[in-house]
Specification:
Blueprint: E1 3-6, H1 8-21, E2 35-38, E3 40-48, H2 53-66, E4 70-74, E5 83-88, E6 93-98, E7 101-107, H3 108-112, H4 117-128, H5 159-169, E8 184-187
Parallel strand pairs: 3-4, 3-5, 5-7
Antiparallel strand pairs: 1-2, 6-7, 6-8
Length: 188
Amino acid sequence: MRIRKLTGGLVAAMAVTFSLMSGQATAAPAPAADTAVAARIVTYDASGSAEFRSAVDRGAAIWNESVDAVELRPSAAGQRANIRVLADNGWPRAQTTSLGNGTVWIGRQAVTEGHNTIRISSHELGHILGLPDIKPGPCTSLMSGSTAGTSCTNAYPNAAEKSAVEGYFGGAFARTAGAAPLNTMIVD
């Protein structure tokens, strides 16, 4: 499991605050070793993704390699997943119901036109993780989607996209301006 580490300075600051609140003046303890906070687990069910199953699993793995605050895992048999991934003949799209929850469609239309299946999967999962489209955009931006062209195979989020997802899922799971709207169909 990937984890996010908090600095020892935060632990020391909390210790000073609590000691001052108790009315006793004491020296702050030495900073503790890094304290780990577990990533938020978001499960996905790709059983309906047909021929795109391996692309969906790779898209999830890319997000797991890229961010610490959230981890995408396949759902266990009989478990209700946060994300449902389906294949259909339309254009790829995602419908978010809340941060980390929704439905993704890996549309065959974009694949037929020559778009990369792993990039599509990673991009659509990005919507469920709170990211909006950034169109038009360069190939270096995962969320530029199809506007990067069929020759673009980059399935990795850039630094700004990683940072946004870390912010959405880190700490108090607060959403910020610019996030993908919830309860909205995002057609790429």
